[in-house]
Amino acid sequence: MNQRGFFRPPQAWVGDVIPWQEDGTFHLFYLHESRQVPKVGMPWHRVVSDDLVDFRATGIALASGGPDSPDFNVYTGSIVVDDDGVHHVFYTGQNPDRRGADGLPLQLVLHATSRDGMDTWERHPEHTFGATPGYETADWRDPYVFRDADAGVWRMLVTARHVEGPARRRGVIAQCVSHDLRTWEPVEPFWDPRRYLAHECPEVFEWNGWWYLVWSEFSDSFMTRYRISRDLHGPWRVPENDTIDGRAYYAAKSAARGDRRFFFGWISTREGDTDDGAWQWAGTLAVLEAEQNTDGTLRFHPPRELAATFDDRIAALTSGAVLSAPDGYADLILPEDAPRSFRVDARFDIAPNTTECGLLLRATADGDQAYALRLEPKRGRLVFDRWPRLTTGGEQWQISGDVPFAVELERPVALPPGEHRLEVIVDGDLCVATVDDAVSLSTRLYDRTAGHVGAFVGEGTVIVTDLVVSAPGAADEARPRVPVPLATTA
Q1: pLDDT over 90 for what percent of the chain?
Q2: Inter-residue contact 299 to 291 (CB < 8 Å)
């Protein structure tokens, strides 16, 4: 099955992604969530891509060990290759019928190897190990292995929790080291902030003299964060904006090709496929490209290759439009209905003291009902919203959650007066918005399935200097699916 730009398997969903790049091809292993009841053992599946536009599913990569095995559920891990060209996978094994000393479902680190290019894996049960002293047996997962050439060892980072301390601040990234990828010795924690419940899916990498520590947390928020340092061992500095995306984009881990680095996460589904449904675990694979600022911080946007596939211009402003409402609201709505999949590329010249402006998606012809991506210069943020919101009792003030926007669907972004770019890619119920090629926000669009694109301003003035709506080109849809090398940066 081929999908373009995003990937979700038939009758299933993508959980945590374990990305591996080799010889120009991205091998994206992922937790295959079927949501079957009763539960069946979770396997890893794999999809491959040469251009991050087309994805080809290859099926099961690492099967469930079976109902009596410690890896009934094959959870998150990592891949490395040794000096002999053998691929090693380290992963989490969990069986709900097996309990640790604390009475909770036991989590273990397991090992398998492949000598045929990751097509088949041989398990090594003799290398299995659980939490080392001082850590809870129920939280020992997501092993991330990498080579520390300076120290001459392999390092394994593990999501863990201390056995003592405030229950919601015991999270720690534990660490083990090995010389042979078979036996592991516990050493001091890699990172121990005593701030979060846990640090899921940890990853560390070096890029142009900077070290990056990435993890996903669900203490205060449900999102992927990162830290930066000039040294592998810290200290780790908190960027001003330390998140990769928002609430709906989770468990992102990265892989590099050449001088480019890409993050692979999943956009969460919502229960009942409705805008007010509870967020669910797993969803659709989505890719963000990271670019590096001179101070080591990162900016994020969808890969350029995906944007380039939207080459059929279907609507546009032929000249700049001024929207001015110093003490009110004004909008303009394009006359054409947008297709199921489209891209909007808009530029706003924001006047000083403007409260808000942005884009309307799937709007009614009069703009009174729509999804909204709102730039708020005074608050320094991008917000996803919709109007009208769901009412819980029939009256206007009885809105869902009684909040002024969709909770957790906001990103901090600097919006000084002047021109700013807002790019949006919509594919069915998926939506990825990016401000100034730097700050991304992903979400779902369920309840409104069609409508117009528009622009708006509230309490201020904005010049819409450019607004183009494009669809995937018919010629591009029909072209043979051949590997296309990723462009290199200048």
Answers
A1: 86
A2: yes
